[in-house]
Design brief:
Blueprint: E1 10-12, E2 15-17, H1 23-26, E3 37-38, E4 58-60, H2 67-86, E5 94-98, H3 104-114, E6 117-122, H4 128-134, E7 138-141, E8 155-160, H5 168-174, E9 175-183, H6 195-199, E10 204-207, H7 213-226, E11 232-236, H8 240-249, E12 255-259
Parallel strand pairs: 5-6, 5-8, 6-7, 8-9, 9-10, 11-12
Antiparallel strand pairs: 1-4, 2-3
Helix pairs in contact: 2-3, 2-7
Length: 262
């Protein structure tokens, strides 16, 4: 592996290779390469005991990171960290995070340590205490009538981490002028975006996938410096079916890690 030493702690995320020759790759945006190969897509997947990857995507792990918790950072972690870099978010920004789950619980930590005023959007009052512990300064239950209207013209950036339909009109109204609604949650239904919701405040709707190798390095260094880690549940590989049942139940908090049997 070029640039790495034997025995070095390394991690591999969602992507395992890219062409290294297209405009995106040569511009440092390898994650946008049209021929990029996923680590578990069309391959042996997460149950393999070996993996082949391009050296570019195999990233050194800072010593301060716990190996048992580093895996989710390399996928979900960089997914919610990247928007802060993409949009040059200043530490004075007001940032909203929709969803306190596998992605959202890491997004709250990143936004807080970035220096932002952090608002968590949830549909369950039971998650308020944990959202605050993870870094939210304010928690809003969007099921309550008028919750979004009270936040009109507030946010510089809202990151949606959920895969459920969104009240796009209400969210756009809660953005400050030139604010942005950024999607990293894979909502399967088309977003209904009202034109005037964009035009009148010069607002934008955007999205992004994971991140380039350089972005991953930035995220890992930031996580190590600020002691950011995902909340995980660990299962031995021999209990993989139990782990999958736990995942299907929707009760996992918030990422499941499969470890080699001891």
């Amino acid at each position: 592996m070029k640039g790495l030493t034997l025995g070095q702690r390394v991690g591999l995320g969602w992507s395992s290779q890219s062409c290294l020759a297209c405009h995106e790759c040569l511009s440092g945006e390898q994650h946008l390469c049209s021929t990029a190969q996923g680590t578990i897509v069309g391959r042996h997947g997460g149950f393999a005991d070996r993996v082949r990857a391009q050296w570019t995507w195999v990233r050194p792990l800072p010593d301060a990171l716990d190996l048992a918790k580093a895996g989710p950072l390399l996928c979900g972690g960089v997914t919610v960290f990247a928007p802060l870099l993409i949009h040059n978010v200043p530490p004075t920004a007001r940032v909203g995070i929709i969803g306190i789950g596998g992605l959202g619980h890491m997004a709250l930590q990143f936004a807080n340590k970035w220096g932002c005023e952090v608002h968590a959007f949830t549909t369950s009052d039971s998650k308020e205490a944990e959202a605050r512990k993870l870094g939210a300064h304010y928690v809003h239950n969007t099921k309550q009538d008028g919750a979004l209207k009270k936040l009109s013209r507030t946010f510089d950036l809202i990151i949606s981490t959920i895969n459920a339909p969104l009240d796009v009109a209400g969210l756009l109204d809660s953005l400050a002028p030139k604010g942005r609604l950024h999607n990293v949650g894979a909502v399967l239904k088309p977003l209904e975006v009202p034109a005037f919701g964009l035009i009148m405040g010069q607002r934008s709707v955007s999205g992004s996938p994971v991140g380039s190798p350089t972005t991953i390095d930035h995220m890992l260094a930031f996580s190590a410096r600020h002691s950011i880690a995902p909340i995980t549940e660990t299962f031995p590989m021999s209990k993989a079916n139990d782990a999958l049942d736990r995942l299907r139940s929707g009760e996992a908090r918030y990422r499941i890690v499969l470890a080699n049997d001891i």
